[in-house]
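Design request, tokens follow.
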């Protein structure tokens, strides 16, 4: 590192693309473990890293200024760190309203077709006519120079308003990515996927990848939770994955008491002991912060320590 550089800046200068997003100590995407060395940490908020984590030696590389040689353990594979962040201009191919709460956006372009990302990662999209960006997980792997996203239809939302009111095929949107350390690792044991609302998106990309790879030798179960029956989307794709992947199964659960779906309540109510496989399981979760906290609490209550627990928190932006 140079005298004024953070570890993240130095890593990118050397072509080591550690996971990062905000660069402001606010998101936690760049959280790593400092194994040795002296350093100072700049500003960060508790949502990005707790005081307890800092005491245990965790750091945010976007705020870490080394004061000596340091060893930093990055919780991402070399595959992730070799993927370069790109900024490109894509074209709107299609916008569909899948439900009152969910939109589908398909972007296309030569750059899109060449974009390298891992299933589960996300991109920042600039809302046309503004300088504002919104983060969305890829809901498909690139095919025919196209990628897709699931977008929550937020009342008075900047991106939602554009997509429902002004968007048309041929519009251009700036895309920056890929971003994030939430991605599908090699499947070496049973996998439990937990999705809340549009948190289904990264799992659709993961399942796309698994189909392309010829499937999985281990069971993969998805529990997809929403608030109301009207929020349930992409069932055709999930059924197609079920047909293409013999070891894949899924459940839908709906919070509303008047739901017509047999499984009601929150995702945690439908995690069966068999899904956890006595801890020999890799868990992936994408949903709002309360859902992440509820699942972590549920695992502690059950006294289950999964082999790995990967999660992506998100909150809808206006």
């Amino acid at each position: 590192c140079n005298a004024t550089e953070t570890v993240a800046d130095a890593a990118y200068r050397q072509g080591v693309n550690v996971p990062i997003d905000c660069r402001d100590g606010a998101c936690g995407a760049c959280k790593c473990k400092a194994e040795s060395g002296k350093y100072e940490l700049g500003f960060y908020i508790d949502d990005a890293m707790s005081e307890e984590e800092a005491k245990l030696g965790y750091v945010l590389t976007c705020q870490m200024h080394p004061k000596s040689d340091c060893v930093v353990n990055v919780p991402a594979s070399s595959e992730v760190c070799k993927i370069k962040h790109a900024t490109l201009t894509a074209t709107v191919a299609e916008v569909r309203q899948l439900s009152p709460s969910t939109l589908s956006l398909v972007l296309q372009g030569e750059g899109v077709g060449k974009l390298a990302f891992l299933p589960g990662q996300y991109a920042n999209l600039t809302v046309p006519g503004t300088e504002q960006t919104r983060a969305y997980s890829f809901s498909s792997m690139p095919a025919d120079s196209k990628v897709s996203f699931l977008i929550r239809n937020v009342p008075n939302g900047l991106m939602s308003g554009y997509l429902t009111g002004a968007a048309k095929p041929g519009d251009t949107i700036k895309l920056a990515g890929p971003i994030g350390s939430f991605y599908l690792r090699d499947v070496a044991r049973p996998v439990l996927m937990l999705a809340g609302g549009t948190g289904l998106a990264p799992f659709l990309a993961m399942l796309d990848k698994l189909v392309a790879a010829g499937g999985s030798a281990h069971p993969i179960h998805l529990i997809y939770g929403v608030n109301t029956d009207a929020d349930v989307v992409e069932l055709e794709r999930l059924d197609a994955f079920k047909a293409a992947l013999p070891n894949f199964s899924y459940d839908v659960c709906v919070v509303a008491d008047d739901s017509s779906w047999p499984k009601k309540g929150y995702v945690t109510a439908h995690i069966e002991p068999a899904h956890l496989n006595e801890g020999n399981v890799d868990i992936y979760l994408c949903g709002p912060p309360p859902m992440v906290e509820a699942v972590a609490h549920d695992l502690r209550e059950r006294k289950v320590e999964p082999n790995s627990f990967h999660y992506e928190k998100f909150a809808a932006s206006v």
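Comment from the thread starter after seeing the answer: thanks! The longest helix spans residues 289-302.
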